[in-house]
Amino acid sequence: MNLQTKILLIEDEAAHIALVRRVFESRSPDTALIVARTLEEGRAHLTTETIDLVIVDWLLPDGWGTDIIPHSDSTVQFPVIVMTSHGNEQVAVEAMKAGALDYVVKSAETLADMPHIAERALREWRHIVERRQAEQEIIRLQHLLQNITDSMPSALITLDRQGRVLTWNPAAERLTHCKGETVYGNILWEKCPELARYRPLIAEVLETRQVAHQHREMVRTPEEIFYYDVHIFPLLADTIAGVVLHIEDATQRVHMEETMLQATKMASIGGLAAGMAHEINNPLSAMMQAAQLLQMLLDTQNPRNRARIEAAGLDPARLESYLQERKLLEYAQGIREMGERAAKIVSDLLSFSRKGTSTPVPRDLNELVKQTLDLAAADYNLAKQYDFRNIKIVCDLAPDLPLVMCDGQQIQQVVLNLVRNAAQAMAGKFAARGPGYPAQLTLRTSQAEPGYVRVEVEDNGPGIPETVRPRLFEPFFTTKDVGEGTGLGLWLCWSIIVERHKGRIWVESAQEEGTRFIFELPLQP
Q1: First-to-last C-alpha distance (Å) of the chain
Q2: Percent above pLDDT 70 for the chain
Q3: pLDDT computed for residue 244 by the predictor
Q4: Under a CB-based contact definition with an 8 Å cutoff, are residues 417 and 492 in contact?
Q5: What is the pLDDT at residue 466?
Q6: pTM for the full predicted model
Q7: Are 57 and 11 in contact (CB under 8 A)?
Q8: C-beta separation of 17 from 25 below 8 A
Q9: Is 452 helix (H, G, I), strand (E, B) or coil?
Q10: Which has more pLDDT, 85 or 212?
């Protein structure tokens, strides 16, 4: 490896060149001295060779020696010593301002001491280079740190002990809608009053020097509810005392956790319900058969029954009168009807607890929605609760909707259940407000995120209380009066969409402003 130091001497006086060359040969044999007599020659050497140090005369035939000094933004940097025969303080100042590392006045002594001057200049230059490299590394790390904090999706705010803002990333700006330039150097809670709620926690961290956490902080706004994970930790710095406030939007994660919890609950309750259905089915069948047998045996118009009644010494007509007076046959019929209703619930439970055997096929959701509306208009139970013709139906169906692999009958059942619920909810609001209430049911289809199709069923009914929403998709949970609902409709919707079609379903509602049920199906489950 060649460790030879290369020094470029740009000098037009032959005597000075000879003297400098002689002292370098005698005192610094490892130094290669390259001589140029003009700036043009010197620049030629600089373009072809790596020069460690340039010693240049102040005035040369083709220009000023300081013209050889590289600009600060030049990619090639090297130290320059300027020398002159007729120096003064003004010349020295101009040379140093131009970027010279050193300035010497020519004399026999300085020229003889040039190897030592060059060594000192090179040593100083190495220190300068190391310092510049360290500064550049600091700047690089600062930029890297700034880019990291700017790229963070969560708010990161640094405060001093008085609460003045030291750093503020874009996520903090999005969270608070406060611009960084307006908060820097100012008290946080004065510029962003909504963050004053963290002031006691910040004071605690400053006092204890211990990290503080606040998980799933709920913040209610007029539009929706947000959840935040808040971490406050002491700022560990030699010259600055303060805290770092980290606010992470956990709303999506909380919703996901709730969805997973709901899915787990649904799976366990669904299995339990299926087991219960099997156990209930046998005694239910026996009860219905006994009620039917009572009706048959107490039928006094049947000749065989009349013969047995007379054989027992009873008057069939008087027995018939007694049965009608005490309404025994009506009670038996009531037992059968309630038994049939319970049997239907059991049948639904068993049906939806089993894995479907139907093969999904490509279906047009727009056509399924239209067919379901036709079914709803003719549905007896729906018509009995609320005249479907009194509801304004708005269909906002997206054209060119891609086909969805699904069980069309099951998806129709979901839409029908949601339409039924909407109609019954609006019936209650109609009863409270009278004919002036304009009931409206809106059905929308659209393409959601890539690979999903969305269906929305929206009404302008009374809405759903917030306390009720977390339980809407639980089996047997209903807000309807006793006898009006089984509490299985929305659970079956959830089972069809989530379990059978690998989709998702949720509700958006505001008190007294209506309800929107939304479900999304993957194009390929």
Answers
A1: 66
A2: 86
A3: 93
A4: yes
A5: 81
A6: 0.46
A7: yes
A8: no
A9: strand
A10: 212
Q: What are the structure tokens assigned to 149, written together?
A: 């904090």
Angle at CA of residue 394, ends 390 and 397, nearest 5°: 150
What is the structure's pLDDT at 341? 75
Amino acid, res. 344: K
- Side-chain half-sphere exposure of 507, counting CA atoms within 13 A: 24
Per-residue pLDDT tens over the stretch 450-466: 889 999 999 988 888 88
Mean pLDDT over residues 22-47, rounded?
Answer: 93
Going by C-alpha positions, the residue among 395, 402, 517, 493 that lies closest to residue 444 is 395
Torsion of CA 419, 420, 422, 423, to 10 degrees: 110
pLDDT tens-digit readout, 196-243:
999 999 999 998 989 999 988 888 877 678 889 999 999 876 666 889
Cα separation, 415 vs 395, whole angstroms: 13
Burial-class residue 195 by CB neighbours within 10 Å (0-12, 13-18, 19+): buried
Q: What is the token pair recorded at 505?
A: 């379903």
Higher pLDDT among residues 382 and 167, named by residue: 167
pLDDT of residue 379: 52
Q: In angstroms, rounded to a whole number, what is the distance separating the alpha carbons of residues 371 and 373?
A: 5
Give the Cα separation of 122 and 127 in Å (integer): 9
Contact predicate 82/35, CB 8 Å: no
Beta-carbon contacts of 507 under 8 Å, excluding residues fewer than 6 positions away, are 464, 469, 472, 515, 516, 517, 518
DSSP code at position 234: E
- CB contact burial 441-466 (16+ within 10 A = b; e otherwise): bbbbbeeeeeebbbbbbbbbbbbbee
- The pLDDT assigned to 84 comes to 87
Beta-carbon contacts of residue 519 (< 8 Å; ≥ 6 apart): 414, 454, 455, 493, 497, 503, 504, 505, 506
Chain length of the chain = 525
Dist CA 226 CA 220 (whole Å): 6
DSSP 152: -
The residues near 214 (Cβ < 8 Å, ≥ 6 apart) are 201, 228, 229, 230, 231
Read off the pLDDT of each residue in 311-319 and give the average, rounded to a whole number: 89
- Please count the other Cβ atoms lying within 10 Å of the Cβ belonging to residue 117: 17
